[in-house]
Amino acid sequence: MKKIDYYIIKKFLGTFFYAIALLTVVIIIFDISEKIENFIENQAPFQEIVFSYYLNFIPYFVNLFSYLFVFITVIFFTSKLAANTEIIAMLSAGISFGRLLRPYLISAGILGALSFALANFVIPHTNIEMRTFKQKYLDNLKKDLGQNIHFQINKGTFVYIERYHSSSSTAQKFSLEQIDSIGQLTYKLNTEKAIYDTAVQKWKLINYYERYIDGLNERLIKGQSKDTTLKLTPKDLTVIKEDYEEMDFNEIREFIAKQKLKGAPNVAAYEIEMHKRIAFPFAAIILTIIGVSLSSRKMRGGIGIHLGVGIALTFIYILLMQFTTVFAVSGNLSPQIAAWLPNIIYIFIGLYLLKKAPK
């Protein structure tokens, strides 16, 4: 590490944190102005607004746009270095462009590692308190799965519910089937109504009958009421909007595995989120290479031209990510490819610009 490395790293990280701090303040001000009526109407306490919502909102917002601010930061301060002929002086002193790139990559690596840690292990836990506040004072995040619910709760055990009401934890027309390894039905439970008792964490079956099947032999049991334990809870029968925001990396992987076992249709959104949490930190490094390659040349028009091109590339990256996400959720595109495709495209852009950069 030389003085030039410390100089560039200090410029990089200092500009990044200063810029994102300013924007965070602006965003919070706009968010307050938008939500102040809801705060007043729902009588949200000032202490909860500050500590439960906005204090937890800051790391979420910072990480959400960190890779974009890395890009803009690199273009901004590198353009200033080029405008002041500092980069020309460095190259004239015998420093290669690759050597000049080293402190940029170190800084981008630090920010990428920070983003990975925040996205996978810190923000999911801070989001719990923030989303609890939103559920209480701003927006209802919970929604019933609706009608005609089918899924697998265990290997060979299938559940059907005609309709579920979360307000009363009641499942109408509840049915459970067990199928053996050769595909034969061995057990079937039908009930008019199943009510979940949160105190004992059991389902109370109303007007039920059970069929035990062993080849050609069957045994039928009927009853008015029965308490039973199933590998099923009301949480499995409700959808919580963007609940992956509360899951760390290990939890989201386990959740995806369980949803695939159930045959749930919404797994792609969770898989994309999991892969994005890995892809975005690498985006900081890729966009840093592009930013340095773009802005290291002194141009007529100065910083404005570099910033204009940089912002255009940034919005194209966001647009590309939105397109791939939609195709993964609604089409046949692999979630892994959807998360990594923008990075792959921008790697080639970065290599091309790096080749054209001043040597």
Describe the structure.
The protein is α+β, with helices and mostly antiparallel strands and 359 residues long. The protein folds into 2 domains: 3-139 and 267-356, no CATH class; 144-237, no CATH class. The chain contains 9 helices and 8 strands. Helix 6 (249-262) crosses helix 7 (267-295). The model has no long low-confidence stretch (mean pLDDT 88).
Task: Tell me the layout of helices and strands.
Layout: H1 3-41, H2 46-64, H3 66-83, H4 86-92, H5 97-137, E1 142-144, E2 147-154, E3 157-165, E4 170-179, E5 185-197, E6 202-214, E7 217-228, E8 238-240, H6 249-262, H7 267-295, H8 303-330, H9 335-356
Antiparallel strand pairs: 1-8, 2-3, 3-4, 4-5, 5-6, 6-7
Brief sketch in words of this structure:
The chain is of the alpha+beta class. It has nine helices and eight strands.
Assembly of the depicted chains: single chain
Count of runs of 4 or more consecutive helical residues: 9
Would you identify the regions where 5 or more consecutive residues have pLDDT less than 50?
none
Helix content: 55-70%
Number of structural domains: 2
Q: Give the strand tally.
A: 8
Please, what is the average pLDDT? Answer: 88
